[in-house]
Amino acid sequence: MSGAAAFTVDAARSLGGPSWLAERRVAAAEQLAQVAWPTPAEEIWRYSRIDELDLARYRPMTADELGAPGDERAPGGGPWAAEAGERAGMLVVRDGRVVHHELDPALEAKGVRVCDLATCDDEVVRESVGVAADAGADAFTLLHDAFVAGGPFVYVPDGVVVDRPIVVLHWAEGDGEASFPRTVVRLGEDAEATVLERFGSADAGHLVDAVVELLLGDAARLRYLSIQEHGPRTWHLGFQRAHVGRDATLHTSAVALGGDYARLRAEACLLGRGARSDALAVYFGDGTQMLDFRTLQDHDAPWTSSDLLFKGAVEDEARSVYSGLVRLRRGAQKAVAHQTNRNLVLTEGAGAESIPNLEIEANDVRCSHASTVGPIDDDQRYYLESRGVPPDEAERLIVLGFFDDVFARLPVGALTRRLRRAVVDKLEHRRPR
Question: Of 13, 94, 259, 341, which residue has the fewest beta carbons closer than 10 angstroms?
Answer without folding.
Answer: 13
